[in-house]
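Hi C.,

You asked whether I'd gotten around to modeling the 404-residue construct. I have! Everything is below, sequence then structure, no commentary in between.
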Amino acid sequence: MGTFIAQVKDKSGNILQERVTAANVEDARRILKKRFDAIGKIKKANFEFDVAAIEAALSNVTIKDKAIFSRQFAVLVNAGVAIVRTLGVLAEQSSNPKFKRALMAINNDVQQGTNLSEALAKHPDCFDKLYVSMVEAGEIGGVLDEVMNRLAKLLEDVARLQNQVKSAMAYPVTVGLFAVLAFLGMTIFLIPVFSGIFDQLGAELPALTQFMVTLSGFLRSPAAIVPVLVIIGVVFAFRQYYRTPAGRLQIDMIALKAPIFGDLNQKSAVARFCRVFGTLTRSGVPILQCLEIVEETIGNKVIGNAVGAAKKSVLEGGMLSLAIEKRNVFPSMAIQMMSIGEETGELDAMMMKVADFYEDEVEQAIKALTSVIEPVMMVGIAGMVGTILLSMYLPMFSIFDQIQ
């Protein structure tokens, strides 16, 4: 793809210069013919900084962006607006540069006869396999607007669950950051002042005060950069290890077994599995394809492997609930409800009920966790400040004793 500059004439007869992104000159001319009355000379743009391209590269497409797009797309299509015009309207009003460019490219592909699902699949950074598969099912079944509404509901539920977790962690992270900054500020700038006073008075420093003075000297020296580099190296090594199959499996296993947070991670993963699976089956996606999609989008390798094993069992004629139960990663209540759904032939409805239940469980667990973290953070901050104050006042007591 490249950028081309063309001379064009609009409906009012004005001669303009228009920039267009296309594969070649012929492609650029074909795109412009749909927008302008006359097309003149087209040339490839010289090398220059493309601010829009830089903004698009630096931006990310959020779940909220896709949820809003899905809801608006469903409304416009249901109102009888053509898909091409719908994509054009939504692309123009999109505030996300990356999403805007993707929608414009998708619109061009659809205008040239490409199916919407195929056009979406060309932009995996914006639309994952789950999204593409549901759109494909909607196209095949002729219920694209209904499927887009379900997609919007699914994405809104996922976004709500993520926002709950982020909101719960925002307070302790913010307070912890300010506490560390206050501790470093007092250690680096305040303790040296008192240290100079103690040296002039010839006071013997207690062990705690001497430790804080030594720490202050270390933090003010060039050697303080060493711990920062070590932390950066550890974070980088952790991310690289997590990208390996064995590393991701091990870390995801720890995440499910961790105290306090393990149960929260398990319930969140189960809720996501049930919500996605139920939405896919209701949209007409075959059950084996549903399991394949969920395996890739569940977000936890351990549960993803359990779903993959269940897919093989279902392919051989087994029951989904029994196959998942063998892996021992789902709560027994979820397994029992899935089994009932299979027996009654309403697996999709039962999956949605399980998702509702565990999303509520996650919400309650987050509230309980927040109520525990807040007092712990207060105690920690009080301990940090109290340690600094105590280290400064202890030598004063010995000085007063000498004076007396």
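If it helps when you're writing up: Residues 139 and 231 are 49 Å apart (CA to CA).

Thanks,
B.
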